[in-house]
Amino acid sequence: KTSLENEDAEVWQWIEAERRRQEDHIELIASENYASPAVMRAQGSVLTNKYAEGYPGKRYYGGCEYVDEVEKIAIERAKRLFCEPAGVEMAVNVQPHSGAQANAAVYFGLLEPGDTILGLSLAEGGHLTHGMHLNISGRYYRAVPYGLGADEAIDYDALERLAREEKPKLIVAGASAYSLRIDFKRFAEIAHSVGALLMVDMAHYAGLVAAGVYPTPFGHADIVTTTTHKTLRGPRGGMIFMRPELEKKINSAVFPGTQGGPLMHVIAAKAVALGEALTPEFRNYQAAVVENARVLAETLVARGLRIVSGRTESHVMLVDLRPLGITGKAAETLLNAAHITVNKNAIPNDPEKPFVTSGIRLGTPAMTTRGFGPEEVRKTGNLIVDLLEAPEDEAVLERVRAEVAKLTAAHPVYGVPV
Ligand code: PLP
C-alpha cells in the first residue's frame, strides 16, 4: 500500500484509476507521453516546498543554495542538448510553468499591445497561443494568421507576401497539428527581411529536434519556446531559449512579469528529463517515434483513409475521416470505448464545427515509449479502421477492446504503481 492510499484514499483511488487507464489504453494523443519514474521522483520531491523567486545567484529568498544548483544543471543540459549541436549561444529560461506561459512571457517581454504578430492559423494546425482571438496572443496583439497551400503544406511564398504587407514585429513558427518538416531557415529569412523577430514554438517537435530526427530551429530563430512534456518526455512545463541580447527582457517578463515563484520540483524534473534526452537511447527512441508514425500513416492509407498533407515526417498526423463518413467527435468516443485514446481535430477547410470536426490527430510518442514497434503499430492502425468502419457493431468493439488489452498487457508502461 502506498502511503497516499492510507493518508487520503479519496484522492488516491482516482490517481490509481488513472494509472490503470494509462496502462490499459493505447495512448495516441500526440502531445502526451509517459515521463520516466526518475522524472516523477524529482517532481515529487521536497523541492516543492521551496520559494526561489529570481534566478540562480540572484534570488529574493534565502536558502536557495541547493535549488540554484538544480536550476543551473537544467540550464546547462538544455544548452548542451539544443544549442551546442547547432553551434549557437543562447540564454535559457527553464522557469515557465507551461508552454502557454512561455509564449505569453515572450510576447509580454518583446511586444507592445497592438503590435502585429503572424502565426499559423489554428484551423490549419497552429496553437491557440499563436494568435487565437480568445488567447492573450490574439486579444492584446494584432494577430494575423498564415496558412497552408493547396498541397496542405505551409505556403512560404504566401507567408512572405503577408509579412511584407503586414510588417509584423514577430513571426511565430511551430504547430500543434502539422505533420511535415518546417523550413525554419526560410522562416528566418522571411522574418528578418521585414525586420521581424522569429520565435519558433517547437513544443511538439522538441524531442525529435533533440535527437536530430527533425530540423532544428537553432541557428535560425531569435527565440525558441517549448513544452517539456510532449516528445521531450519530461514533466509538464515550458522553457525559453533566446538570443543573449533578449535575455534581460524575456527573463523579467517571466519573473516578475507573468510568474511568481518558480516550481523548483518541476525544474528538477526538467533537469532529469534533459539528462535522459542527452543519451543515445533517447536518440533511438525518437527515431522509432518517427518510424512508427510513418508505419501508422501507411497502414491507415492502405485501408482507405487520407492523411492531411499526404504523409507524416514527424511524430504526428491528422487523419481525414470523411472517406468513412464518421466525424472526429464520434470517432474519439468510439475509440475511447475500445481503450484507444485520440483527440478529434479540425482538418484544413473542415466542413464540421470545431467541436465536431472531420478528423482525428494521432501521434506515436507514448506508444513508442511503452515499446510498440512497427508490428504493434500496424496492428493498432488496423484495429482503428476496423472499429471506425463498423461504428454500430458491438462484436467488433468487443474484439478490438480484447486485442487492445493483449497489446497493452504485453507492453506495460510502468508495470507497477509508481
Ligand atoms: N505550443 C504548442 C505548439 C502546443 O502544442 C502547446 C500545447 O498543446 C502549447 C504551446 C501549450 O503548452 P501548455 O499546454 O503546456 O500550456
TrEMBL record:
<keyword id="KW-0663">Pyridoxal phosphate</keyword>
<dbReference type="Pfam" id="PF00464">
    <property type="entry name" value="SHMT"/>
</dbReference>
<comment type="pathway">
    <text>One-carbon metabolism; tetrahydrofolate interconversion.</text>
</comment>
<feature type="site" description="Plays an important role in substrate specificity">
    <location>
        <position position="229"/>
    </location>
</feature>
<dbReference type="GO" id="GO:0035999">
    <property type="term" value="P:tetrahydrofolate interconversion"/>
</dbReference>
<feature type="modified residue" description="N6-(pyridoxal phosphate)lysine">
    <location>
        <position position="230"/>
    </location>
</feature>
<feature type="domain" description="Serine hydroxymethyltransferase-like">
    <location>
        <begin position="4"/>
        <end position="384"/>
    </location>
</feature>
<dbReference type="InterPro" id="IPR019798">
    <property type="entry name" value="Ser_HO-MeTrfase_PLP_BS"/>
</dbReference>
<dbReference type="InterPro" id="IPR049943">
    <property type="entry name" value="Ser_HO-MeTrfase-like"/>
</dbReference>
<keyword id="KW-0808">Transferase</keyword>
<dbReference type="GO" id="GO:0008168">
    <property type="term" value="F:methyltransferase activity"/>
</dbReference>
<comment type="subunit">
    <text>Homodimer.</text>
</comment>
<dbReference type="InterPro" id="IPR015424">
    <property type="entry name" value="PyrdxlP-dep_Trfase"/>
</dbReference>
<keyword id="KW-0028">Amino-acid biosynthesis</keyword>
<dbReference type="GO" id="GO:0030170">
    <property type="term" value="F:pyridoxal phosphate binding"/>
</dbReference>
<dbReference type="InterPro" id="IPR039429">
    <property type="entry name" value="SHMT-like_dom"/>
</dbReference>
<feature type="binding site">
    <location>
        <position position="122"/>
    </location>
    <ligand>
        <name>(6S)-5,6,7,8-tetrahydrofolate</name>
    </ligand>
</feature>
<dbReference type="GO" id="GO:0019264">
    <property type="term" value="P:glycine biosynthetic process from serine"/>
</dbReference>
<dbReference type="GO" id="GO:0032259">
    <property type="term" value="P:methylation"/>
</dbReference>
<keyword id="KW-0489">Methyltransferase</keyword>
<dbReference type="InterPro" id="IPR001085">
    <property type="entry name" value="Ser_HO-MeTrfase"/>
</dbReference>
<dbReference type="GO" id="GO:0005829">
    <property type="term" value="C:cytosol"/>
</dbReference>
<keyword id="KW-0554">One-carbon metabolism</keyword>
<comment type="similarity">
    <text>Belongs to the SHMT family.</text>
</comment>
<feature type="binding site">
    <location>
        <begin position="126"/>
        <end position="128"/>
    </location>
    <ligand>
        <name>(6S)-5,6,7,8-tetrahydrofolate</name>
    </ligand>
</feature>
<dbReference type="InterPro" id="IPR015421">
    <property type="entry name" value="PyrdxlP-dep_Trfase_major"/>
</dbReference>
<comment type="pathway">
    <text>Amino-acid biosynthesis; glycine biosynthesis; glycine from L-serine: step 1/1.</text>
</comment>
<protein>
    <recommendedName>
        <fullName>Serine hydroxymethyltransferase</fullName>
        <ecNumber>2.1.2.1</ecNumber>
    </recommendedName>
</protein>
<keyword id="KW-0963">Cytoplasm</keyword>
<comment type="function">
    <text>Catalyzes the reversible interconversion of serine and glycine with tetrahydrofolate (THF) serving as the one-carbon carrier. This reaction serves as the major source of one-carbon groups required for the biosynthesis of purines, thymidylate, methionine, and other important biomolecules. Also exhibits THF-independent aldolase activity toward beta-hydroxyamino acids, producing glycine and aldehydes, via a retro-aldol mechanism.</text>
</comment>
<dbReference type="InterPro" id="IPR015422">
    <property type="entry name" value="PyrdxlP-dep_Trfase_small"/>
</dbReference>
<dbReference type="GO" id="GO:0004372">
    <property type="term" value="F:glycine hydroxymethyltransferase activity"/>
</dbReference>
